[in-house]
Amino acid sequence: MIGGNVQTERGIICIEAAYQSEEKAKMDGYRYAFFSKKLNRILYSKSLDDRGLKHTFAVIEGFN
Fold it and tell me: Which domain does 8 fall in, by range?
């Protein structure tokens, strides 16, 4: 799932990182984006530009 594009209910996203906890994702600059029912995972995003139009995503693997 890491390093590739995946289909979610909100469209195709690129997941570039995985974390065991939300706190670790926040420490690396990610913010809560949404919970994907399709992936059954919490997703965090980080803006890649000044305008906030491009994002990269991280999945929280420690979520059950």
Answer: 4-60
